[in-house]
Amino acid sequence: MMKKLTQTELDYILQQHSLWLQHQGGERAVLNNTDLSHLNLEGAVLHRANLTRTNFTNANLCDADMSDADITYAIFKEADLNNASFRDADLRNADFSYAQMPNVDLYRADVYRADFNNANLNDDAFNKPTIGNTIITLRGSGKSECLAFH
């Protein structure tokens, strides 16, 4: 059964998670199987949090940082994810249907079997940084090569 949190309870967990990330006590946010639908998580820092099967339906997640988090099977239906970061996050089987996702960062995120049906998603959400004409020093060789990728 899914636990429903109030905004006050969520704010406390976010505060404790922030302390944990800064190595100042607190504790990691473990919000798996939690109902956070319709709550305000604007600017929330959930980096490295456990968000497995969390329900974010209709939640405000603008500017939220969910990088490197476990977000498998989470539900983001109709959520506002403008400027949210999911870098390196595990989003396998997550449901983003009808989510607002302009300017979202999905770089290196695992989106295997994630549902983006009818989501408002920028074309460049999955783009990798440009590495053309980058100087790469090959380990142990001592020499650099300029690689031009096309």
Automatic annotation (TrEMBL):
InterPro entries: 5peptide_repeat (IPR001646), Pentapeptide-BTB/POZ_domain (IPR051082). SUPFAM superfamilies: Pentapeptide repeat-like. Gene3D superfamilies: E3 ubiquitin-protein ligase SopA (2.160.20.80). It holds the Pfam family Pentapeptide. It comes from the Bacteria. PANTHER family: BTB_POZ DOMAIN-CONTAINING PROTEIN KCTD9 (PTHR14136). This is Pentapeptide repeat family protein. It comes from Aliivibrio fischeri (strain ATCC 700601 / ES114) (Vibrio fischeri).
